[in-house]
Amino acid sequence: MAPSFLPKNRFSQHLTPRLGAAIALIALSTLNYGFDNQGIATSQAMAAYKKQFGVYNPKTKTWAIPTYWTSLLNSLNFIGFAVGLYLGSLISARYGRRMSMFCMSIWAMMSATVLITSSTIEQVLAGRILNYAYVGMELSTCPLFQAEIVPAPIRGMAVGTYQASLLLGGIIINSVCRGTSEIQSNAAWRIPQGLFYIVPTIVASGVWFIPESPRWLLVKGRPEAALESLRLLRGARPDYDPEEDLENLKISLSEEQNQGSYRDLFRGSNRKRTFIAMGMNFFMQATGSPFTAAYGTLFVQSLNSLNPFDFSIMSSCINTVSSLVAIFITDKVGRRPILMIGSFLQIVWLFTMGGVGTIASPTAAQKQVIVAATALSSASLCFSWDPLNYIVTTELPALQLRDKTQRVASIVSIVTNFAWSFSVPYLLNAPYANLHSKVGFIFGALACLSLVFAYFCVPEMRGRSLEEINQLFQDGVSIRDFGKAPRVKAEEDEVQELPVVDKSGN
């Protein structure tokens, strides 16, 4: 139970010291994703990095990484992502969430060694592929783990820390890169990448001190261990009965309309859940995330209007604040409104960026508008689809299908991210499409579709337990009527019994 001196709110009521420590450690692992995601992207703008891995142009007397290598470095890493996603999901489902986190941390330290010791661009590519296997294992485990251990009133905040931690990692490593960017030796990029060792070491050492997921323990036929996990996570509270909570989990598990096979993902009520999860992951990537995350620094550098390393720090800070605002209000405001607001803002900024890009010779002020629109489109994504994707995707699935739904949805994310990460350099640069900032029209059009998807296809699940959400889907409640369906009312918002819902949604 939270200390008595804290003000009474949903966080102090539900966030016990043990639960808070578990959420924090799981979120900490995502810092490494931010380190890799932003560290490699920012390093590519460094003079020392270009000299080590690029090609010399005698006409301009500069070093540059060829477009095809830029494309490969930021796309083929998703091969490792896909492999890691599958392996992590298997380990998580068979041996537990904690074991998966331990294995991925050990793997991360190995892949970091490959990256830091790189002397050729081929070795960098191999290191990125290996390191993204860690990222895939993390995605298959961490949001799922967080969703399974927290009560409904703070689940959005807890799962949202996955994205916030990723962005915080971006701030840290972009700041380090800014400080080392003027170094002329390979220490300029090797020092920031040395951070890749820190987080996995802490996570591998500390993961055994947090409780295992009670839902996973129950699926594995270990009700006594599940009960003990609930007691440790929820603490000693007079208004909370862990045995009653465990019974609700058992009821939900026994009433599920599936046996946990991949075929079941597309049967009955699960078909709807699977397609929503796939759509969430598609639009998170298709509306510009690969462009700003992997190529934002290089894009701004090509404009010659702002120090690209200053931009990377500024953008990371804005994105982190946007994500923190989203995860703190999502349990109050809801998932759908935030997604729709984010999509609308993306439409505005992306079409602004594309519109100004139609000017043949933009002025310094117009270039600043392009930079601002790029940063704001990224911030809008970090306010909405980036953090909310992990929340919604982990809330949707049936208990028996939670791991498999996460795999399938994440594969959609990987394929979409790969396609855009591979294509963006050719869309941006001459002698290929040479669209430059006019790519905003492409991503803006997809943002319009994401707004339609959020309005018609995403159910409102704030404040409901995972068992309650499962019951609503199985009762055939219309997606648009989720917010109107009968809700369990209790002082602490703990689910005491599953609601009886009219299948018509009335």
Automatic annotation (TrEMBL):
GO terms for cellular component: membrane. Residues 22-462 form the Major facilitator superfamily (MFS) profile domain. It is a multi-pass membrane protein. The keyword Transport applies. InterPro entries: MFS_dom (IPR020846), MFS_sugar_transport-like (IPR005828), MFS_Sugar_Transporters (IPR050360), MFS_trans_sf (IPR036259), Sugar/inositol_transpt (IPR003663). The keyword Phosphoprotein does not apply. Keywords: Membrane, Transmembrane, Transmembrane helix, Transport. Pfam families: Sugar_tr. It is found in: Membrane. GO terms for molecular function: carbohydrate:proton symporter activity. The chain crosses the membrane at residues 63-87, 99-121, 275-299, 311-330, 337-357, 369-388, 408-428, 440-458. Belongs to the major facilitator superfamily. Sugar transporter (TC 2.A.1.1) family. PANTHER family: MAJOR FACILITATOR SUPERFAMILY (MFS) PROFILE DOMAIN-CONTAINING PROTEIN (PTHR48022:SF10), PLASTIDIC GLUCOSE TRANSPORTER 4 (PTHR48022). This is General substrate transporter. It comes from Xylona heveae (strain CBS 132557 / TC161). The lineage of its organism: Eukaryota, Fungi, Dikarya, Ascomycota, Pezizomycotina.
